[in-house]
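Forgive a beginner's question, but would it be possible to get any protein sequence you like and the tokens describing how it folds?
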Amino acid sequence: MPVNIAPESTIEMRVWAEAETVCLSVSNVGVEIPANELPSIFDKFHRVPSTDPWKKGGTGLGLALIQKLIHHLNGSIRAESATERTCFTVELPLTQQSRRPA
């Protein structure tokens, strides 16, 4: 389902199931994270410089907190970014048989 948030960008969300896993992807078409920033985007207090078209700052905690929550649920999150598109994909198990320690 695409959602327009600015004239030059669109957010797309997809949800699907694979075997014992539910998957969710959120893509922002029109925004790209530089390749050299991708390895650090889940670090606490990390902020990608100059990529916010509205120049609004943040604390750099959002993605770190999301990653911690997803890992707590025995899931995974990954980010890909290229050619004016950024995509976050979350995979969560449908059953919570064994929990990771907090």
Remarks:
- Residues 11 and 40 are 22 Å apart (CA to CA).
- The longest strand covers residues 9-18.
